[in-house]
Here is the input.
Amino acid sequence: MVAERVRRVEISGIRRMFEAAPPGAINLGLGEPDFNPPAAVIEALCDAVRNGLNHYGPSAGLPALRDKIAERYRDRAPATTRDNVLVTGSGSEGLMAVALTLYDLGDEVLVPNPGFVLYAPHARLAGATPIPYSLTPNRRYLPDLDELERLVTRRTRALVVNSPSNPTGAVFPSKVVDRLCAFADRHQLTIVSDEVYEEIVYDGPATSFWGRSDRVVIVNSFSKTLAMTGWRIGFLVAPRALAPDLNKLHYHILACPSTPVQAAVLAGLSDGGEATRAMVREFKARRGLVTRLLARVPGLEVVRPSGAFYVFPRFSWNRTSQEVAAALLARGVITTPGDAFGSLGASHLRLSFAASRENLRRGLGILREYATELEAESAL
Ligand SMILES: Cc1ncc(COP(=O)(O)O)c(C=O)c1O
Here is the structure.
């Protein structure tokens, strides 16, 4: 009964672990802020619904919101206008619209390994072949340009990049961004840059790909920056020539993004980003806490994350990442096995520090006990 394309993809390993969790488990698994959206944004949503903004809107999004988003991108490319912007029903929907608009049957798409769980399945659903490129701790999870040169073929259509990265927390220095743009330009690849964690950075700003190459599509979202993962709202920024085709595809997926949620987001953007900055200050303190706590866990190699809210330790135990995550789940802590993000995620765990300090202390305490047992076992 089911189409072949559906059999080609699997359920995400993040969801599987989350849905198998016992009630009351400490959640270091899902990547979502443990905050509510700013009070003014919640108010604006209630007002919008009460005031009758309950109907279909333009498929590309409300012009006022597109203008506001374009304004934010003018520091990178001064000619950016609402014609470059498409409001989507989440970063996830944006990624799907991009894949279905750009990739043809038989194309190859360079995707990070480890990388966010949608890139490879979306390429497959579009009939393309995902070609993984490596991100490893010895390169601080930054792409290796020589490897990319070896992987590119005449069929390569796009390069998917994600900085700040889920799951590694790496932020690409601007030199790396420039080199990736030069590489993509040389091979006439479109860069699909997932920048949903753009504002969640701890050691200085992240460099956006927008304005650095003519063939860039930015995928972004309000899920993380306004703590509204359940509201489902995001956006794309794309070259003007491509935007109408993206919009056509997006219309066939969603018709239009939620009207009241757009009105609320517009209100949220008028505080100049203060709500996001306050959240990021707390995440930064938690990053410090997590790094200190993980340093006490035997058998781990940790690259300190510079962005997003994940840490991605590599372990030296004689266990698969599925086994480690399952053992921790049995002890009441949800984590995500590293291989959910690709083969090079093996021997890693992804821990989200978008959880309270108390839960981080308890969860990492349990991890430490477990690690100590494994170390004792291997010493026998
Ligand atoms: C790297 C990355 N891109 C995109 C998304 C999708 O976010 P949303 O669909 O909530 O906008 C996520 C969510 O975890 C993510 O981590």
Q: What stands out?
A: The pocket of pyridoxal-5'-phosphate is lined by residues 31, 90-92, 116, 162, 166, 194, 196, 221, 223, 229, 234 (CB under 6 Å). The first helix runs from residue 4 to 7.
